Prior knowledge:
Strand order of the largest sheet: 1-3-2-4-11-5-12
Keywords: Signal
Strand content: 15-25%
Largest sheet: 7 strands, mixed
Mean pLDDT: 90
CATH class of the largest domain: Alpha Beta
Radius of gyration: 19 Å
Signal peptide: 1-28
Pfam families: NMT1_2 (PF13379)
Shape: globular
Low-confidence stretches: 1-33
CATH architecture of the largest domain: 3-Layer(aba) Sandwich
InterPro entries: TAT_signal
Protein name: Nitrate ABC transporter substrate-binding protein
CATH superfamily of the largest domain: Periplasmic binding protein-like II
Structural class: alpha/beta
Amino acid sequence: MTHSIVSPQRRKLLLGAASMLAAGAAPALPALAQGAPVIIGVGADPVFTAFYVAANEKLFAKYGAPNVTVQSYTDGGEALNALVANQVQLGCAGEPTHIVRLSRAELRPLAVTYQSKTYVKLVARKAITSADKIKKFGIVAGSVSEYVTGLTLKTLNIDAAKVEMVRSGPPELPALLARGDIDAYFVWEPWPTLGVQQGGHILMTAGDVGYTSTLWLSANANWLAANKEVAGNILKALAEASEITRKDPPRAAQSVQAITRIPVPQTLNSLKDMEPIVRDFTDTDLKTANAIGEFLLSKQAIKAPVDMSKILQRGFYKG
Protein backbone atom coordinates (compact mmCIF):
# COMPACT_ATOMS: atom_id res chain seq x y z
CA MET A 1 0.00 0.00 0.00
CA THR A 2 1.30 3.44 -0.94
CA HIS A 3 -0.05 6.87 -1.62
CA SER A 4 1.06 9.78 -3.79
CA ILE A 5 0.12 13.22 -5.12
CA VAL A 6 0.06 13.96 -8.83
CA SER A 7 2.35 16.72 -10.12
CA PRO A 8 1.16 19.41 -12.55
CA GLN A 9 3.14 17.72 -15.34
CA ARG A 10 1.49 14.41 -14.57
CA ARG A 11 -1.93 16.10 -14.64
CA LYS A 12 -1.26 17.36 -18.18
CA LEU A 13 -0.31 13.88 -19.33
CA LEU A 14 -3.49 12.42 -17.82
CA LEU A 15 -5.70 15.01 -19.47
CA GLY A 16 -4.00 14.33 -22.78
CA ALA A 17 -4.48 10.60 -22.39
CA ALA A 18 -8.14 11.10 -21.52
CA SER A 19 -8.56 13.11 -24.73
CA MET A 20 -6.89 10.31 -26.70
CA LEU A 21 -9.31 7.80 -25.25
CA ALA A 22 -12.25 9.96 -26.21
CA ALA A 23 -10.95 9.76 -29.79
CA GLY A 24 -10.48 6.00 -29.53
CA ALA A 25 -6.69 6.18 -29.43
CA ALA A 26 -5.90 4.86 -25.96
CA PRO A 27 -5.41 1.14 -25.34
CA ALA A 28 -7.82 -0.89 -23.28
CA LEU A 29 -6.83 -1.48 -19.66
CA PRO A 30 -5.71 -5.09 -19.22
CA ALA A 31 -7.14 -7.24 -16.50
CA LEU A 32 -4.75 -7.64 -13.59
CA ALA A 33 -3.57 -10.83 -12.05
CA GLN A 34 -4.51 -11.61 -8.47
CA GLY A 35 -2.26 -9.56 -6.18
CA ALA A 36 -1.24 -7.12 -8.92
CA PRO A 37 -0.99 -3.41 -8.04
CA VAL A 38 -4.25 -1.46 -7.96
CA ILE A 39 -4.41 2.34 -8.06
CA ILE A 40 -7.40 4.31 -6.76
CA GLY A 41 -7.68 7.92 -7.90
CA VAL A 42 -9.26 10.40 -5.47
CA GLY A 43 -9.36 14.15 -4.92
CA ALA A 44 -7.02 15.87 -2.48
CA ASP A 45 -9.53 17.08 0.09
CA PRO A 46 -11.21 15.80 3.27
CA VAL A 47 -14.29 14.47 1.47
CA PHE A 48 -12.08 11.49 0.57
CA THR A 49 -10.98 10.94 4.17
CA ALA A 50 -11.96 7.26 4.29
CA PHE A 51 -9.55 6.47 1.45
CA TYR A 52 -6.70 8.13 3.29
CA VAL A 53 -7.56 6.30 6.50
CA ALA A 54 -7.64 2.96 4.68
CA ALA A 55 -4.26 3.68 3.09
CA ASN A 56 -2.55 5.07 6.17
CA GLU A 57 -3.82 2.35 8.50
CA LYS A 58 -3.14 -0.47 6.00
CA LEU A 59 -6.77 -1.58 5.92
CA PHE A 60 -6.61 -2.67 2.27
CA ALA A 61 -4.03 -5.30 3.21
CA LYS A 62 -6.18 -6.38 6.15
CA TYR A 63 -9.01 -7.20 3.74
CA GLY A 64 -6.92 -9.06 1.20
CA ALA A 65 -5.89 -6.24 -1.16
CA PRO A 66 -2.28 -5.54 -0.11
CA ASN A 67 -1.07 -3.79 -3.26
CA VAL A 68 -3.48 -0.86 -3.34
CA THR A 69 -2.24 2.69 -3.92
CA VAL A 70 -4.38 5.74 -3.17
CA GLN A 71 -3.30 8.48 -5.56
CA SER A 72 -4.36 12.08 -4.95
CA TYR A 73 -5.42 14.45 -7.72
CA THR A 74 -6.54 18.07 -7.53
CA ASP A 75 -10.19 16.97 -7.44
CA GLY A 76 -12.53 14.12 -8.31
CA GLY A 77 -12.72 15.31 -11.92
CA GLU A 78 -9.02 14.74 -12.45
CA ALA A 79 -9.24 11.40 -10.66
CA LEU A 80 -11.88 10.31 -13.16
CA ASN A 81 -9.81 11.66 -16.04
CA ALA A 82 -7.13 9.26 -14.89
CA LEU A 83 -9.69 6.44 -14.84
CA VAL A 84 -10.92 7.31 -18.32
CA ALA A 85 -7.29 7.42 -19.50
CA ASN A 86 -6.63 3.95 -18.00
CA GLN A 87 -4.02 5.34 -15.60
CA VAL A 88 -5.88 3.98 -12.54
CA GLN A 89 -8.19 1.03 -11.99
CA LEU A 90 -10.68 2.82 -9.71
CA GLY A 91 -11.71 6.43 -9.23
CA CYS A 92 -13.96 8.34 -6.87
CA ALA A 93 -16.01 11.48 -7.62
CA GLY A 94 -19.51 12.95 -7.56
CA GLU A 95 -22.46 12.03 -9.74
CA PRO A 96 -22.23 14.72 -12.46
CA THR A 97 -18.48 14.19 -12.74
CA HIS A 98 -19.18 10.56 -13.65
CA ILE A 99 -22.10 11.15 -15.97
CA VAL A 100 -20.28 13.62 -18.24
CA ARG A 101 -17.55 11.00 -18.81
CA LEU A 102 -19.73 7.96 -19.55
CA SER A 103 -19.56 8.55 -23.30
CA ARG A 104 -15.77 8.30 -23.17
CA ALA A 105 -15.30 5.15 -21.13
CA GLU A 106 -17.14 2.18 -19.67
CA LEU A 107 -17.25 3.18 -16.03
CA ARG A 108 -18.93 0.98 -13.44
CA PRO A 109 -20.01 2.80 -10.23
CA LEU A 110 -19.76 0.18 -7.47
CA ALA A 111 -21.04 1.94 -4.35
CA VAL A 112 -21.62 5.22 -2.55
CA THR A 113 -18.66 6.24 -0.36
CA TYR A 114 -19.96 9.51 1.12
CA GLN A 115 -23.20 11.45 1.51
CA SER A 116 -24.14 14.90 2.76
CA LYS A 117 -26.86 17.54 2.62
CA THR A 118 -24.59 20.32 3.88
CA TYR A 119 -21.07 19.85 2.44
CA VAL A 120 -22.06 21.75 -0.71
CA LYS A 121 -22.94 25.34 0.23
CA LEU A 122 -24.15 28.55 -1.38
CA VAL A 123 -21.87 31.46 -0.45
CA ALA A 124 -22.97 35.00 -1.25
CA ARG A 125 -21.74 38.56 -0.86
CA LYS A 126 -22.86 40.23 2.38
CA ALA A 127 -25.27 42.45 0.46
CA ILE A 128 -27.10 39.41 -0.94
CA THR A 129 -29.68 38.32 1.62
CA SER A 130 -31.72 35.89 -0.49
CA ALA A 131 -31.08 33.75 -3.54
CA ASP A 132 -33.53 35.68 -5.72
CA LYS A 133 -31.21 38.70 -5.53
CA ILE A 134 -28.33 36.82 -7.17
CA LYS A 135 -27.60 38.06 -10.70
CA LYS A 136 -24.20 36.40 -11.27
CA PHE A 137 -23.59 32.80 -10.16
CA GLY A 138 -20.09 31.33 -10.15
CA ILE A 139 -20.20 27.69 -11.27
CA VAL A 140 -17.84 24.79 -11.85
CA ALA A 141 -19.21 23.58 -15.17
CA GLY A 142 -20.21 19.92 -15.51
CA SER A 143 -20.04 19.35 -11.76
CA VAL A 144 -22.38 19.22 -8.79
CA SER A 145 -21.84 22.98 -8.55
CA GLU A 146 -23.64 23.60 -11.84
CA TYR A 147 -26.35 21.05 -11.08
CA VAL A 148 -27.22 22.45 -7.64
CA THR A 149 -27.19 25.99 -9.03
CA GLY A 150 -29.75 24.93 -11.63
CA LEU A 151 -31.76 23.14 -8.95
CA THR A 152 -31.76 26.33 -6.89
CA LEU A 153 -33.20 28.36 -9.76
CA LYS A 154 -35.87 25.73 -10.39
CA THR A 155 -36.78 25.25 -6.71
CA LEU A 156 -37.04 28.97 -6.00
CA ASN A 157 -38.72 29.82 -9.34
CA ILE A 158 -35.91 32.15 -10.39
CA ASP A 159 -35.87 33.02 -14.09
CA ALA A 160 -32.65 31.50 -15.45
CA ALA A 161 -32.65 33.99 -18.34
CA LYS A 162 -32.07 36.79 -15.84
CA VAL A 163 -29.07 35.13 -14.20
CA GLU A 164 -25.52 35.09 -15.60
CA MET A 165 -23.42 31.94 -15.11
CA VAL A 166 -19.69 32.62 -14.68
CA ARG A 167 -17.54 29.53 -15.19
CA SER A 168 -14.56 29.05 -12.93
CA GLY A 169 -12.41 26.50 -11.18
CA PRO A 170 -13.20 26.02 -7.46
CA PRO A 171 -10.04 27.77 -6.14
CA GLU A 172 -10.86 30.99 -7.99
CA LEU A 173 -14.42 31.34 -6.69
CA PRO A 174 -13.66 33.02 -3.33
CA ALA A 175 -11.55 35.71 -5.04
CA LEU A 176 -14.23 36.32 -7.68
CA LEU A 177 -16.76 36.80 -4.89
CA ALA A 178 -14.48 39.12 -2.91
CA ARG A 179 -13.91 41.30 -6.00
CA GLY A 180 -17.61 41.46 -6.76
CA ASP A 181 -17.22 39.68 -10.11
CA ILE A 182 -19.92 37.25 -8.96
CA ASP A 183 -22.70 37.53 -6.40
CA ALA A 184 -22.60 33.94 -5.15
CA TYR A 185 -21.43 30.40 -5.81
CA PHE A 186 -22.65 26.92 -4.86
CA VAL A 187 -19.71 24.56 -4.33
CA TRP A 188 -18.16 22.03 -1.96
CA GLU A 189 -15.82 22.66 0.96
CA PRO A 190 -13.27 24.09 1.61
CA TRP A 191 -14.22 26.82 -0.88
CA PRO A 192 -17.36 27.97 0.99
CA THR A 193 -15.34 28.42 4.19
CA LEU A 194 -12.66 30.34 2.31
CA GLY A 195 -15.38 32.52 0.78
CA VAL A 196 -16.70 33.36 4.23
CA GLN A 197 -13.18 34.23 5.37
CA GLN A 198 -13.01 36.74 2.50
CA GLY A 199 -16.24 38.49 3.45
CA GLY A 200 -19.03 36.26 2.18
CA HIS A 201 -21.71 34.43 4.12
CA ILE A 202 -23.51 31.07 3.83
CA LEU A 203 -26.95 31.57 2.31
CA MET A 204 -28.06 27.93 2.12
CA THR A 205 -26.90 24.34 1.63
CA ALA A 206 -27.63 21.73 -1.01
CA GLY A 207 -30.14 20.09 1.31
CA ASP A 208 -32.21 23.27 1.30
CA VAL A 209 -32.96 22.71 -2.39
CA GLY A 210 -33.58 18.98 -2.00
CA TYR A 211 -30.19 17.57 -2.94
CA THR A 212 -28.01 15.10 -1.04
CA SER A 213 -24.53 14.94 -2.55
CA THR A 214 -22.85 11.55 -2.88
CA LEU A 215 -19.54 10.23 -4.10
CA TRP A 216 -19.29 7.05 -6.17
CA LEU A 217 -16.36 4.67 -6.36
CA SER A 218 -16.13 3.42 -9.93
CA ALA A 219 -14.05 0.86 -11.78
CA ASN A 220 -13.03 0.42 -15.37
CA ALA A 221 -15.41 -2.21 -16.81
CA ASN A 222 -12.68 -4.48 -18.24
CA TRP A 223 -10.72 -4.44 -15.02
CA LEU A 224 -13.83 -5.11 -12.92
CA ALA A 225 -14.80 -8.15 -14.98
CA ALA A 226 -11.56 -9.86 -13.94
CA ASN A 227 -11.21 -8.40 -10.43
CA LYS A 228 -14.58 -8.45 -8.69
CA GLU A 229 -13.18 -10.04 -5.54
CA VAL A 230 -10.45 -7.41 -5.25
CA ALA A 231 -13.00 -4.61 -5.77
CA GLY A 232 -15.21 -6.13 -3.07
CA ASN A 233 -12.28 -6.33 -0.65
CA ILE A 234 -11.41 -2.68 -1.30
CA LEU A 235 -14.98 -1.67 -0.43
CA LYS A 236 -14.79 -3.68 2.82
CA ALA A 237 -11.63 -1.81 3.76
CA LEU A 238 -13.28 1.52 2.97
CA ALA A 239 -16.31 0.54 5.06
CA GLU A 240 -14.09 0.08 8.12
CA ALA A 241 -12.24 3.30 7.32
CA SER A 242 -15.57 5.13 7.10
CA GLU A 243 -16.59 3.77 10.49
CA ILE A 244 -13.29 4.93 12.00
CA THR A 245 -13.85 8.37 10.49
CA ARG A 246 -17.35 8.66 11.93
CA LYS A 247 -16.39 7.43 15.40
CA ASP A 248 -12.96 9.04 15.75
CA PRO A 249 -12.61 12.16 13.55
CA PRO A 250 -9.26 13.29 15.07
CA ARG A 251 -7.73 9.91 14.27
CA ALA A 252 -9.03 10.12 10.71
CA ALA A 253 -7.80 13.70 10.31
CA GLN A 254 -4.29 12.56 11.20
CA SER A 255 -4.35 10.17 8.25
CA VAL A 256 -5.49 12.95 5.93
CA GLN A 257 -2.67 15.19 7.13
CA ALA A 258 -0.11 12.40 6.79
CA ILE A 259 -0.92 11.94 3.12
CA THR A 260 -2.15 15.32 1.85
CA ARG A 261 -0.68 17.73 4.43
CA ILE A 262 -4.15 19.21 4.93
CA PRO A 263 -4.14 20.57 8.51
CA VAL A 264 -6.08 18.55 11.05
CA PRO A 265 -8.41 21.47 12.00
CA GLN A 266 -9.45 21.90 8.35
CA THR A 267 -10.37 18.22 8.04
CA LEU A 268 -12.22 18.22 11.35
CA ASN A 269 -14.24 21.24 10.23
CA SER A 270 -15.13 19.51 6.96
CA LEU A 271 -16.10 16.25 8.64
CA LYS A 272 -18.87 18.05 10.53
CA ASP A 273 -20.73 18.40 7.25
CA MET A 274 -20.47 14.90 5.82
CA GLU A 275 -21.12 11.25 6.48
CA PRO A 276 -18.40 8.88 5.28
CA ILE A 277 -20.24 5.64 4.54
CA VAL A 278 -20.01 2.73 2.13
CA ARG A 279 -23.41 1.54 0.93
CA ASP A 280 -25.27 0.19 -2.07
CA PHE A 281 -27.24 2.46 -4.41
CA THR A 282 -30.88 3.12 -3.54
CA ASP A 283 -33.95 4.05 -5.58
CA THR A 284 -33.37 7.65 -4.49
CA ASP A 285 -29.79 7.54 -5.78
CA LEU A 286 -31.04 6.26 -9.12
CA LYS A 287 -33.72 8.96 -9.34
CA THR A 288 -31.17 11.68 -8.53
CA ALA A 289 -28.65 10.30 -11.02
CA ASN A 290 -31.23 10.29 -13.81
CA ALA A 291 -32.30 13.83 -12.90
CA ILE A 292 -28.68 14.99 -13.08
CA GLY A 293 -28.31 13.26 -16.44
CA GLU A 294 -31.37 15.09 -17.77
CA PHE A 295 -30.00 18.39 -16.49
CA LEU A 296 -26.61 17.81 -18.12
CA LEU A 297 -28.35 16.88 -21.37
CA SER A 298 -30.33 20.13 -21.26
CA LYS A 299 -27.04 22.02 -20.86
CA GLN A 300 -25.47 20.03 -23.74
CA ALA A 301 -22.83 18.74 -21.33
CA ILE A 302 -23.72 15.27 -22.63
CA LYS A 303 -24.93 14.45 -26.13
CA ALA A 304 -27.44 11.68 -25.41
CA PRO A 305 -29.70 10.51 -22.57
CA VAL A 306 -28.20 8.05 -20.10
CA ASP A 307 -30.20 5.31 -18.39
CA MET A 308 -28.40 5.14 -15.06
CA SER A 309 -30.20 1.92 -14.11
CA LYS A 310 -27.88 0.22 -16.61
CA ILE A 311 -24.78 1.94 -15.23
CA LEU A 312 -25.03 1.77 -11.43
CA GLN A 313 -23.88 -1.62 -10.16
CA ARG A 314 -26.72 -2.10 -7.69
CA GLY A 315 -26.21 -5.12 -5.48
CA PHE A 316 -22.44 -5.27 -5.96
CA TYR A 317 -21.70 -4.07 -2.44
CA LYS A 318 -23.21 -6.34 0.18
CA GLY A 319 -21.90 -4.79 3.37
